[in-house]
């Protein structure tokens, strides 16, 4: 917010009037005037006091406030992105079967995704970005004990387009996918989106700004809506880098299946990120994040009690810029 220096007001200033009373209308010649002079008479002159000179204090120089100004052209760069997720699953059907206390009622699964992400494009003063990029060497590793179907092989290279503003983070493949459900290309696009951070020009140390986005995802043939709300704070600024802290709130909801087997998914989560931005290039130099998301999935089959599965997903994210 721009600072406005108050001006000097000059309200209700009235002119000051003086009454002039002349001591003599005309020179007096003659005896009376000579007698007065001889007796030392005449007008009495009273010295006017002169105020002492006061030293004017120096006017302090205006304080210079460092404000963010990032380049409009993002020349491009490459980042190594690693996402690690640990999921703990608890099944209500196993609990109902009398296995209370059995550690097998809770299962743990780990997923690691990594890739080399590249972006280049333009940026506006509001921080909005229009970008093209790619994900190279994308890999996914899991510790799933059982798979209903083998994971599809990720492509060697995924081309991307992105548009980012305060209410949108949209990353799509090029060409567009006919069906994004459970596609590795969609997972690669989600990994590349983690590199994109909107920073408006003009913010100062301590400034905060909000962003939100609504993303449609699909997991296990169940379409879901992911709502993300974030608040970013500029913690420090100097000539070389910015240090940011971002807090994120997540909401997940979705339903799918058929009349014979229906699913309903609800979830909430939160996360935090520490971000370092290169001022000269206007890009993320380093990002570290942690998140936790709790999902509840209800499976309904005719003439059977609902089966509820709770998943607690804890994740870490690491982004490093490669020169």
Regions with little confidence, pLDDT below 50 for 5+ residues? 1-44, 94-104
Q: How many strands in all?
A: 11
Mean pLDDT: 80
Instruction: Give the overall shape, derived from the CA principal axes.
Output: elongated
Main β-sheet: number of strands, strand sense, barrel status? 11 strands, antiparallel
| SS-derived structural category | mainly beta
Identify the strand order in the major beta sheet: 5-4-3-2-1-11-10-9-8-7-6
What helical percentage do the residues reach? under 10%
Distance between the termini: 35 Å
% residues in beta strands: over 45%
* Rg, alpha carbons: 37 Å
String of helices and strands: HEHEEEEHEEEEEE
Features:
eleven-stranded antiparallel sheet, single chain, 323 residues, mainly beta, 3 helices
Describe the overall structure.
By secondary structure, the protein is mostly beta strands. Helices cover 7% and strands 50% of the residues. An eleven-stranded antiparallel beta sheet has the order 5-4-3-2-1-11-10-9-8-7-6. A hairpin with a 2-residue loop joins strand 6 and strand 7. It is elongated and about 105 Å long. The protein starts with 30 loop residues before the first helix and ends with a strand. Residues 1-44 and 94-104 have low confidence and may be disordered.
């Amino acid at each position: 917010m721009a600072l406005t220096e108050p001006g000097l007001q000059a309200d209700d200033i009235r002119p000051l009037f003086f009454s002039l009373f002349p001591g003599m209308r005309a020179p007096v010649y003659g005896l009376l005037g000579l007698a007065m002079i001889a007796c030392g008479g005449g007008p009495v002159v009273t010295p006017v006091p002169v105020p002492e000179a006061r030293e004017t204090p120096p006017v302090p120089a205006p304080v210079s406030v460092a404000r963010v100004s990032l380049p409009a052209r993002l020349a491009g760069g490459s980042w190594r992105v690693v996402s690690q997720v640990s999921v703990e699953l608890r099944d209500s059907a196993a609990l109902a079967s009398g296995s209370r206390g059995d550690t097998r009622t809770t299962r743990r699964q780990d997923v690691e995704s990594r890739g080399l992400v590249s972006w280049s494009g333009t940026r506006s003063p509001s921080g909005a970005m229009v970008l093209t990029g790619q994900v190279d060497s994308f890999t996914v590793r899991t510790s799933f004990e059982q798979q209903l179907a083998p994971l599809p092989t990720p492509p060697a290279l995924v081309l991307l387009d992105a548009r980012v503003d305060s209410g949108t983070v949209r990353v799509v493949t090029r060409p567009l996918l006919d069906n994004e459900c459970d596609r590795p290309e969609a997972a690669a696009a989600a990994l590349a989106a983690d590199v994109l951070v909107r920073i408006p020009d003009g913010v100062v140390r301590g400034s905060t700004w909000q962003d939100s986005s609504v993303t449609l995802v699909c997991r296990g043939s169940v379409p879901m809506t992911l709502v993300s709300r974030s608040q970013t704070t500029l913690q420090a600024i100097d000539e070389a880098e910015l240090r940011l802290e971002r807090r994120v709130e997540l909401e997940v909801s979705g339903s799918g299946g058929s009349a014979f087997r229906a699913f309903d998914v609800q979830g909430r989560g939160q996360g935090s990120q520490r971000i370092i931005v290169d001022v000269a290039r206007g890009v993320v130099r380093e990002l570290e994040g942690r998140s936790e998301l709790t999902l509840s999935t209800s499976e309904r089959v005719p003439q059977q009690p609902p089966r509820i599965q709770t998943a607690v997903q804890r994740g870490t994210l690491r982004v490093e810029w490669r020169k």
